[in-house]
Amino acid sequence: MMRNVSVLQSVAAGCTAFVLLGAQNALALEGGTSPFPAGSTGEYIAAMPPITGLFAVQQTSYTSSDRLYDAHGDKLPVPFKMTARSTTTRLLASWGQFGDTHLYSQLVLPLVSLGLNVAGHGDKDKGLANVTISPLVARWGLSPEANVTAGLDIALPSSSYHAERMANVAVGYTSWQPIVAFRYNKPNGLDVGLSNRLLINQRNSDTDYRSGRAYVGEFTAGWNFGRWKVGAVGAYVNQFSDDKQGGASIGNRMRSFAIGPSIAYNAGPVILNVNYQRGLYAANTSKSNAIWVNVAFPLWAKP
Predict the structure, then answer these.
(1) Residue 227 is part of a domain; what is its CATH number?
(2) How many domains does the chain have?
(3) Residues 220-232 pLDDT 10s
């Protein structure tokens, strides 16, 4: 349940006729930017601390892409290059146990630097992307190794968004995102997790554009060897409703799939993780490759 930049390839109308006919028609979600970066959860799917306290996850990522794909997943002959660097701070307050339920709240603060070039037309943007709040997240332990979490993430509009820009690190609308996740993590054994998220995007009042609704499935699978964990992480995105402009449907549904290796080390109170996710499939978007470096640590924990 975290946020910074997703498919960070924004293309604005008004570049050239070539760009309009090629790139813009290949980008679903307004400007090609998503309010959630699929794959960012990675190692932390349903990984909520079972004790009371304040915890932090510091994430650094580098994302790049140089190809656009049409609705059938075929590469488009449109010169395209996108790079994004992000530093995201995730703060998690663990309120304690109430009956069989452990409750949490979360705040996610992403800083992003984005570079974009389409058919020789370039733009850059940097700043605070969409801040995300999770007012209440619930966790239920099914066994010592397994748990289920459920909650609501709310990605808020950011002042970094400018409707006239070609590149934007943020979207100009609110996105409501209910999540249900499962994790089974056995010491010196199997570790698997699955997060199910819906993107329910609101209308952008600046452009009268409404990005379609989408499902995001993130997963992790691996094996624990003492303090080490090796495996894979990835994400699948399926936009199941059309984008709309001025209330009229314009299609542009996106799909993507990415997967890659992950390694983690438990250093006691600090947990380190590095993972790489390679885009293997894309439709109405680009194939993005991303590397993530994550550090999780307690700020305060109840003795």
Answers:
(1) 2.40.160.40
(2) 1
(3) 999 999 999 999 9
Cβ contact 111:67 at 8 Å: no
Per DSSP, helices labelled H in the chain are 17-22
Predicted pLDDT at 95: 98
Residue 302 domain-assigned (yes or no): no
283: tokens are 């439709």
12 domain residue, yes or no: no
Tokens describing residue 31: 């400007």
Distance CA 243, CA 25 (A): 11
* Residues forming beta bridges with residue 124, ordered by sequence position: 115
Nearest to 87, CA basis, from 60, 107, 68:
60
For residues 189 and 151, give the distance between their C-alpha atoms in angstroms, rounded to a whole number: 28
Q: Name the residue range of residue 273's domain.
A: 17-297
Residue 4 lies in a domain: no
Residue 17 is predicted with a pLDDT of 31
- Sign of the CA dihedral running 49, 51, 56, 58: negative
Asked if residues 12 and 31 have their Cβ atoms less than 8 Å apart, the reply is yes
174-201 pLDDT, tens digit each: 999 999 999 999 999 999 999 999 999 9
